[in-house]
Alpha/beta hydrolase family protein
Amino acid sequence: MGGRVAQFLAAHHPSLVSRLVLACTSPGGVHAFERSNEIRQRLATARRDTLRELFYTPAWSGHSHLFGDPTMSPPEARAHLRASNRHDAWDVLPRIEAPTLILHGTDDLMVPSANAPLLAGRIPDATLHLHEGGRHGFFDEFADDLTPVITAFLEGRP
């Protein structure tokens, strides 16, 4: 959900954003590629093993902090999901002025990777970086590969 919030922040308050990194997110609305009904059903009854499978490859053996806030009440979790499902930044994406790096794992089923080129095509001068085989938590699992890419971008290096 952070990438969705960041899109609106960068579009509506450009003076607050000097560089933008969007990872595994979507423009939302009718233009977005949505997760499949199978994935929606799995998430509706999500258990930790389901989330682990959607976020990481079988090779990942690390600890994750990406599975949500365990202190969130059921009404808060529903509100979070409702806000996420209603996200539609399509019309404001061209207003983003900050240099933008778009990262996505190619095997992300939570937010399909087909959304990354959509974002790159709507945000002026955006840079697209797809990580082969990465799932929704690819930036955590493959941090050793991605940290130099992100650091170079944030420092303004090619």
Q: What stands out?
A: The chain has one domain: 17-124+133-154.
